[in-house]
Amino acid sequence: MRVDGKPEGLRQSMSWLHTWSGLVLGWLLYAVFFTGTLSFFRDEITDWMRPELHRSISDENTIQKALDAMQNIAPHASTWTLNLPGPRQTAVEASWRDVGAPAGRAGTQRAEIDAATGERLQPRETRGGSFLYRFHFELYAMPRIWGRWIVGIATMLMFVAIISGVITHKKIFTDFFTFRPKKGQRSWLDAHNATAVLALPFHILITFSGLLLLMNMLMPWGIQAAYNGDNQAYFAEMRGNRQAAAAAGQGERSPRAAQADRPAAFLPMAAMAPMLEQARQQWPGRDVGSITVNAPGTAGATVELRERGGASLLNRGMSRSLRFEAGSGALREGPASPEVSWVRATSNVLTSVHLGRFAEPALRCLLFLSGLVGTIMAATGMVLWVVKRLPERRKMGRTPPGHRLVEVLNVGSIAGLSVATAAYFWLNRLIPADSAARSDWEIRGFFIVWLLCLLHPLLRPHRKAWTEQLALATVLFGLLPLLNPLTGGASLLQSLVHSQWSVAGFDLMMLALALLHALITWWLLQPAKGKAAPAKTGAPVRSQPVPGDAAAAVARTSMEQPS
To answer: Does residue 447 contact residue 420 with C-beta atoms inside 8 Å?
Structure first.
């Protein structure tokens, strides 16, 4: 590891590994961590970005109104599926498949139904939270497999950085309770250690489980050997599709067969209230999350009620279900759930935590906060790399181009990503709702703003670049709750009164992000002590070294250098 070839101890070697494994792809890892953290509220973000749905307020008649609406929207469909309003969505999300439709998503049609009136809503085109979710493991504007490989390699480096960081800092747990402000490099190391240890189990689990989710791509050789290269057979057996399909097919006609005997008139369904009551008795404390009607309007129609959320992580949070005869409302005996091997159960538990599908609102907020701590850990680590090299820059009397490049990338990748994300939400409301390809322009706008934020620190002194971008992010995040009611959405007060937690949760999350950025901006604006006039530089760079040989003279970081 040393340029002079002298041997190093384990900790010294791990320190080198920790530094460079974290820096080489640190900016990408920060973006992955930041967008992945926001993805814990993927559904809430999507709901907020479709203000046409905010007028949908559920009541006790929502289910019946939605079923009546489906008779007009898709009377000849082979199946209906209704995802009911809840803490993470305001409207009824309906999907259906026509007889003979292609398999998979291509044959599925969708609509949004007003929970209060049963009317079909027409929300604006947007990728919503799905763009941030997909970006955090597939990136963008490249083949998906390339993006997943890049993120997979970066995740492996992240895992290496975490493990080597624990080995390097022998007093890491002791230092967690120590913070020495205004001590320059020592302060940043304390902050980096504290954020690393505070959520260390989360950091390890989220990184390792991310590798597990990409395992089939990163290490495909076992599957290829055991299944002779038939990946589809592996996935079918892994998910229990064969057993479930065989069990479901015993004694039950398929929707296609039932459609063949469709009567001239649409046969009515039995009242839903008794079915819902049986579901509540079977799942105490749980709500019905979705309703599926197979072969609606026929004599062989069935109704499947599925609980909201799951009861166990062993099967990846799969929710339980009850089946009824649609005409009589009689409960039918459902197929037995396929058994899960201990190997698959272990993987399911780890990956379910990463996806957060099981999490109730309070736990989801805790996951979000843990992800936010991890994001701060990555940011402080990249800033610390620059801070540790300030004494070297003072001796040289100039800023090396490589150091300047890291400074610029730090500003654009950390503060710039916040500005770009806030701009993405603003563009959702500023681009006309009926514009062609508006969802593509939302995403293009995101990257255009991010690119401008990467160019901005090249033209501004380093400290001012940090302050200006963080202040802009503060304003953009903080004004989003006011922008919402002005552009057709529900205000924060209205969403709280009507228990529209997806809309209220987004607004509160934006206020929390605004507060965090405001605190950092305020800290940067505080006058630094122990500074003198900047020394002359040997290169035409805008970032100047901090002169002086006392530790107090480097109390601020590179982000706080004078203009």
So the answer is: yes
Report the length, in residues, of the chain.
563
**Type of residue at 504:** A
Write phi, then psi, for 347 (nearest 5 degrees).
-65, -40
Quick one: DSSP state of residue 560? G
Question: 3-class DSSP state for residue 9?
Answer: coil
**DSSP sequence for 294-314:** ESTTSTT-EEEEEESS-S-TT
Element (H, E) at 348: helix 342-355
> Which pairing describes strands 120-121 and 331-332: parallel, antiparallel, or unpaired?
unpaired
d(CA 337, CA 43) in angstroms, rounded, equals: 28
Instruction: Find out whether 19 and 164 touch, Cβ atoms under 8 Å.
Output: no
Distance of alpha carbon 143 from alpha carbon 166, whole angstroms = 35
Alpha-carbon distance of 537 to 400, in angstroms, equals 10
CA distance 27 to 18: 15
Cβ 443 vs Cβ 427: under 8 Å? no
Phi, psi of 475 (to 5 degrees): -65, -45
Rounded CA-CA distance 465/521 in Å is 11
Per-residue model confidence as pLDDT tens digits over 470-504: 999 999 999 999 999 999 999 999 999 999 999 99
Rounded to two decimals, the pTM is 0.84
Instruction: Give pairs for 443-447: CB < 8 Å, separation 24+.
Output: 443/127, 443/131, 443/140, 446/131, 446/420, 446/421, 447/140, 447/420
Find the angle CA(404)-CA(373)-CA(10) to the nearest 5 degrees.
70
* pLDDT confidence bin for 34, thresholds 50/70/90: very high
The token duo for 326 is 């649609």
3-state secondary structure 510-545: HHHHHHHHHHHHHHHHCCCCCCCCCCCCCCCCCCCC
DSSP, collapsed to helix, strand or coil, labels residue 182 as: coil
Rounded to an integer, what is the distance from CA 172 to the centroid of its chain? 29
Q: Sheet holding 288-294: strands in order across?
A: 120-121, 108-113, 92-98, 77-83, 288-294, 302-307, 321-325, 331-332
Q: Are 502 and 490 in contact (CB under 8 A)?
A: no
Concatenated DSSP letters for 98-129?
Answer: ETTPPSGGGGEEEEEE-TTT-PEE-PPP--TH
> Judging by beta carbons within 10 Å of its beta carbon (0-12, 13-18, 19+), is residue 96 exposed, middle or buried?
buried
